[in-house]
């Protein structure tokens, strides 16, 4: 997605340790017009798939997911990283965050993830893929079916994308970062 | 907003202790078409105001805020409830959650909240108003200006709305819940 790649090269910032910050337009401050274009591209990439619900995980997956749901007129559900004490019929799993070096639990109400649901999962980043695998686990627990996973940015030098594709998941990433070595952003053509 | 009121009466569920659950269409599973209509109504309510940025707080404020930003072609920034270790120029404040009975910190990067910014704040719920007041504090710290605050649902039997209006804030709530006594949802006409 050329528009996104150009924006990452223009406004993304690279820090030692393979950190790419896109907090001026994706995951802290957000550009809603870009977010709509991102959603259109997800619609295009998953045009051949049959799904009835969009799923994401709080917080920065919500903006692209709601835009995809808006374009396709489908409900959107987001997994939560804290267990609200009022959640009914909770499904939960544990995710290890490399970035934060800790475990956290991710949960969703079974009320909104059902057998028969065909899920398109959307998130902002795919790096080690642990949050994505946690959400896959919730989908399995619910008896729902995962149709595909779309990410705004994938870091191909981290193992998440390879792991998901080896499991047979249809993964679509709109910008694939091949390297951040020497704090230079290298995006796949 | 009639559409919203009807939906709350139809799909909202009331629990002892003044709890209103709208998790099937607002803050866990979300209806993106309703969310767009909600955003249109916010645009209408704040049509006379001059603002250049939309602010919200994660997680359930993000969906209505990004829709408002999309309609008006304005950037959207969300305050975070956890401090990412990579956040630069961080402003933070402490918020007491009555629902969860604990203190938490809310933060935002000064990079995206500047002197001269005129902010429309959007969130899903206004009850005690502590998260909203925390965000007001961040806006003051940044030297920005708060133009108005829009909430999808206000519980008028809790003190948040009164407190904000007493401070001179222009508050617009799209559905005002006057009582949840005896687990019956009473919405202001």
From TrEMBL, chains A, B:
Q: Which UniProt keywords apply?
A: Cytoplasm, Glycosyltransferase, Purine salvage, Transferase
Record-listed xanthine binding positions: 20, 27, 155
Q: Which SUPFAM superfamilies match?
A: PRTase-like
Q: Which GO terms describe its biological process?
A: purine ribonucleoside salvage; xanthine metabolic process; XMP salvage
Catalysed reaction equations from the record: XMP + diphosphate = xanthine + 5-phospho-alpha-D-ribose 1-diphosphate
Predominant location category:
cytoplasm
- What does the record give as its pathway? Purine metabolism; XMP biosynthesis via salvage pathway; XMP from xanthine: step 1/1
GO: which molecular function terms? xanthine phosphoribosyltransferase activity
CDD domains listed in its UniProt record = PRTases_typeI
E.C. number(s) listed in UniProt? 2.4.2.22
Tell me, what does this protein do in biology?
A: Converts the preformed base xanthine, a product of nucleic acid breakdown, to xanthosine 5'-monophosphate (XMP), so it can be reused for RNA or DNA synthesis.
Alphabetized HAMAP family for the sequence? XPRTase
Instruction: Give the protein's recorded name.
Output: Xanthine phosphoribosyltransferase
Organism of origin is Odoribacter laneus YIT 12061
Where is the organism placed in the taxonomic lineage, from the top? Bacteria, Pseudomonadati, Bacteroidota, Bacteroidia, Bacteroidales
